[in-house]
Amino acid sequence: MFHFIQSYGIYGVVNYPTISLIDGQFREALTAAQINFSQEIAFLRAAHHQGLFTVAFVTNVTEALQAQAIPVDIICIHLGLTSGGRHGASQLQTLREIVQLIQDIVQALKEKKATSFVMIYGGILTTAAEVQFVYQQVAGVDGFIGGSALERIIPEQSLGEQIRVFKNSPQTATESTTKSVKNYYDPVKFVESFIQEHYAESIRLQDLAVHLHLSAPYLSKIFKAQTAFSFTEYLITFRLNQALELMTTTNQPLNTIAAAVGYSDYAQFQKIFKKRLLLSPQNYKNQRILSKD
């Protein structure tokens, strides 16, 4: 069979979609028919012995250890169906649960001296910021497989924005259509750029809406539709990413870093930081110091 596959110029195989994503009565029926994850492992093992590149999607420690015993070239930790976009999965794991699962699998593979690359996929991981957070929390993750997060979400956002441009091209009563089109700029891009340039200052959506000659509710609506984040979520995420960068590259006091990213009240910064990253700024800093040692 594999010679037939290779004759078409195919050099790798993957067990996706894996049966591990199926549960309930359908899973029971498949198991009763002796359709199980072990068959996927047997398929990957046979492909490996024929010299094909192999990627194993796994959902727990046991499956990961079965894959590394082959060994496959890449072990991809499947974190559930992608949650972003208009048709994302409705059930989401919490970030804490996701990090713990990845840590458990990586540690188990490390103890077995696994040679496979370890990658992550799916779940709530649809943006660079979320993937970066996982990288910072778990040592031993080699990469991210985007899947539909890259194929579907970005085109959805781009197409949706173009539709809004045609429907809501901004112009005042004193401007001609030609001048309006010439001077048109994307309000969402403006807000993103403003945050990137002024994140250390006090920023209010209401003030930006006034500048753009839009209502605050409307600006909030189109911002979330295009970015998948509320204005507040986007601002907090950007500020925390800047804080993490400063904590990683400088020895500045934490209260100085907080003020530098827009939080003059260190207690507020500490509360937001702990809620998002699941540990305090000081504990995060201590972990960074220990990892360097």
Question: Can you describe this structure?
Answer:
There is one protein chain. Helix content is 58%, strand content 8%. The longest helix has 20 residues. About 9% of the residues have low confidence. It has a five-stranded parallel sheet. The protein contains 15 helices and five strands. β2, α4 and β3 form a beta-alpha-beta unit. The chain folds into two domains: 148 residues, TIM Barrel, CATH 3.20.20.70; 116 residues, Homeodomain-like (Arc Repressor Mutant, subunit A), CATH 1.10.10. It is α/β, with parallel strands linked by helices.
Task: Provide the descriptors you would attach to this structure in a database record.
Arc Repressor Mutant, subunit A; 2 domains; 5 strands; single chain; TIM Barrel; 8% strand; 293 residues; alpha/beta
Summarize this entry quickly:
The chain has 293 residues and is an alpha/beta fold. The protein has helices spanning 2-6, 24-32, 37-49, 61-68, 95-111, 128-137, 148-167, 177-182, 187-198, 205-212, 216-227, 231-249, 254-260, 266-277, 281-292; strands at 12-14, 53-58, 74-78, 117-121, 143-145. The longest helix has 20 residues, at 148-167.
Topology:
Blueprint: H1 2-6, E1 12-14, H2 24-32, H3 37-49, E2 53-58, H4 61-68, E3 74-78, H5 95-111, E4 117-121, H6 128-137, E5 143-145, H7 148-167, H8 177-182, H9 187-198, H10 205-212, H11 216-227, H12 231-249, H13 254-260, H14 266-277, H15 281-292
Parallel strand pairs: 1-2, 2-3, 3-4, 4-5
Helix pairs in contact: 4-5, 7-11
